[in-house]
Amino acid sequence: MTANLNFRLSRRMGLMFFISGAAALVYQVLFAKELALVFGSTAAATFTVLATFLGGMAIGSLIGGALAARVKRPVLVYALVELAIGVYCVATPTLFSFIQWIYVALATDLSPEAPSLLVLRVGLGAGVLLVPTVLMGITLPLLAQALNPLGDRLGKAVAWLYACNTTGAALGALLTSYAVIPFFGVRMTTVIAAILNLLVALAALELAKKLHTASRALPIVNTPNSDVTHPAKAGEHQDIVPVGSGILAGALVALGLGGVLSLGLEVVYVHLLSIVAGNSVYAFGLMLATFLVGLAIGGECGRRLLERSGTDRPAWLAVTQIALAATVSLGAWGWDMIPVWFIGFGQIPAFASFESREIVRGLVCALVMIPPTVCIGASYTLAMDLATSSTSSRRGITMLGLSAALNTLGNIAGVLLFGFVLLPWLGGLVVSKIVAGSALLIAAVVTVSVATHRTRQRLGSGLAVVIVLILISPSRLDYNTLSKGANVYFTAQNWGTVIDHAESIDGGLTMVTRHANHAINGGVVTTLLTNGKFQGNDAKKGEVQAQIGFAALPLLHQNLRNNALVIGYGTGATSRVLHDAGFAHIDIAELSRDVVAMANRYFSGVNGGVSYLARVQTHITDGRNLLLLTPRKYDVISIEITSIWFAGAASLYNREFYQLARSRLRPEGVLQQWVQLHHMASTDLLTIIATLRAEFSYVSLYVVGGQGILIATNDAARSHASPAITAALDTSPQLQSVRELAGRHFASIADDLLLSPNMVDTLLNRFSVQREKWISTDNNLKLEYNTPKANANSPDRSFEANLTLLRTVPKR
What we know:
- The chain is α/β, with parallel strands linked by helices.
- The protein has four domains: 1-218, Growth Hormone, Chain: A, CATH 1.20.1250.20; 246-489, Growth Hormone, Chain: A (Up-down Bundle), CATH 1.20.1250; 490-536, no CATH class; 539-807, Rossmann fold (3-Layer(aba) Sandwich), CATH 3.40.50.
- It contains 30 helices and 14 strands.
- The chain has an eight-stranded mixed β-sheet, sandwiched between helices.
- A hairpin with a 3-residue loop joins strand 3 (497-504) and strand 4 (508-517).
């Protein structure tokens, strides 16, 4: 086979693996979304899914290495594997529904924090994910063997395929976030990804047929286990000289520990970027895409190094790890600067739109992610080349599978260790120092095996310099800068001085600030923030009155006092009001343990320590998942999450959630839900109202303190605020302190009604021809992908536009 034909072959296989990588990333995003709805969107559930996904890839790598060493037609087998992936993944929506049924049947009435739930999630998640992920893991060894049948070093083939696959995955991440899911929905996106697998399978079948025909027709030398042919060359050796045991040990350390660091770094950087660059579904798509772009560039850099004759592979492997440590350490100085950049761009009119601001976010993510991930990608390809050169050529492909599995197992360990242990314990910047220090440890191990004394000296000097860099790099973020919330609105919010903070995967960066305000609260206001986003404060003549008003509204419609559920703890005001109103049992569902701890520590004057009281049970879990598992029936369900545009939060505004909530309410039950009116497009507001109305016969809208509160019920007797109930609330001794905090009586809160149920129906009937198209579901995800765009809108203008729309409805 001529060099030109070999070039065309590698490019064709690269294109197939590029498309396969895009499809695989689409599946990963879809699987995470689907299983978050089944198991909840907590970090424990999310990382369980990721660990299971990676575990399947590791098993697949082992199988793929053994299989590729034995099959005669690896491209044909690759085609069948891609076909199997596509066929299986088309069925995954049905499989997810099935495991949800099993999950509910086995887990109902268990505590969301029960250890047995973790085992159940892993088992059920593996039941769906292992088949496609094992198949995905098989593909790399098969194509690598097809590209290198003569037994030459596998590093160049792996580097090329790795770069193509990760580039495709990066494109898949962007298209999935910005185009495919928003336009086509979850189910159709699954079909589109399966079609990509089918196209790859068809292309691979055609290629396998051509290669098989060529192997029979040409007078050439055939390898014993492949129909890929190469011309006989005088003096050509099919076996290579294995590398020494010291070099092999360094390569395996770089793959194993390097796998821990690569996913650990992703966990830490996504956490930090969610604090400084935002945590919408688009922001996470940008983070993932730029991470993958860096890996792809690094893989290509590694390939070019391997193509150069005389490349000292161990030395360059050590260099990539030293460079990784250096880029992570230097990056520590940049985190505090990012909010300042956003504020600066926010003052430029050209960056007032959602699209232009996403470009800025993308550039920030690229500046943060790409430098270290280039080092990771190059290190991976160099280490793979060394590992597959450690044995005879015919066993090199088996070693490839073993090495890929080792790296993937390291990935799993990195997710669990950094996500659950190191990050909550030490914080993002200190953990990034651990990544840098561990990279230097890998570099030191590899340096020992470098052949020349002069090269070892140079590498040692680099190690010493970067050690100093790690020691002097910042260990603490500037929390006062991060509290300004510039990542959300590209403008600074002045919440005061940070007096306490906590970091975790679930909670992000939770902060408490204080600032002087002589007009209220005796001159000092304490505020609770998540990633710079306002959660509540203790201004008793300001925000507290609005918070109490929110919680009071469902009481105007409901006289039953058995069970209540609060989703979203915040400062604890809602839970306190419901407790004082006399409910026999209150469940609180809050994703972030940090929010509960900070609220109890600094806002006891608002919440009265409600989470510690006897009739109250606090669950650190996803509210939707709690509803899925509890058999309890509620009289009131209250939902006051921080913002709809947070990734995953909009699932509490989808039709399937309202169906679930309705099933957990008594027939006389009342649902209360906060809805923002500022930074909210009118179309999205109508979508929320229409979606809620699709499951509840009577929907009212109140405006309290500039915020919208929806009240929904299917009981006509509770469709309006009851004068008798209101009078009883205004005379209740148990609610005396609540009325004092509110600074008003319940009767005046009832006057905040803007739209009665009849008026809501009148509003929606204006769009009755396309009523169903307004509804947000777990399939179309309208709100999750639409609401972040409105953050670029003027808060005052959007608020006035929404009020104007709502006030056009005649009073009825």
